[in-house]
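tmp note - Hydroxyethylthiazole kinase
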Amino acid sequence: MTLKKVDYALYLVTDSTPAILGDKGIVKVVEAALEGGVTILQYRDKVSDTGALISTGKRLHAVTQKHGVPLLINDRIDVALAVGCEGVHIGQDDVDLPTARRVLGPDAIIGVTASSIDEALTACKDGANYLGIGTMFATPTKTNTKDIIGTAGTKQILAAMSQNDWSRTVSTVSIGGINSTTIQRVLYQSAHPTKPLDGVAIVSAIMASADPRSAASSLLSLIRSPPPFA
Ligand code: TZP
Ligand code: MG
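out:
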């Protein structure tokens, strides 16, 4: 299996809390979402211990490999190494990017959360492959987010990336409160002329859905179709 070029269009971020996953199995939900068109997966699990993270990570990796989609682990470079997956996503309070790069190597996909222009440009300089820009809108999925930046704040970050020549080398996704109602507003109101978003990162609109396959496929159609208000 060879991985396709990284496509950030529909980036699924998992959640293992009962409020979102319910009593559904995470691997089954992810499998359905991949069938619906998810293009990249982040295994984010704040409840399991290290052993369970590694074993679920390996099961998820088997499924993502079947679909030719990269798997990243949230926060934990040790778990990413043990799983042997494609990379990690780190926040501002996690291990620093240069350390993650040193440990995981030049080919790993490393994403960083950025809520401000400073955070974004620092992550670009330090060699991030992509930025998770947010929080876009307030969301019950993650209530301890420090900054709600909306489409205007996101566009300012994209503009700063463009002005500093990071447009082509560093990809971007928006995260927070993105669902079938908000997705086109996010994509088109955030877009800077020379640096549009490469995709959207979504938790509950897929993970909490009774039908994750069709949730993913409807979201992907919205991403690929022009907005009604363009
Ligand atoms: N980081 C910023 S907001 C968020 C994360 C992990 C959660 C987004 O969840 P949802 O359900 O897509 O709003
Ligand atoms: Mg983190």
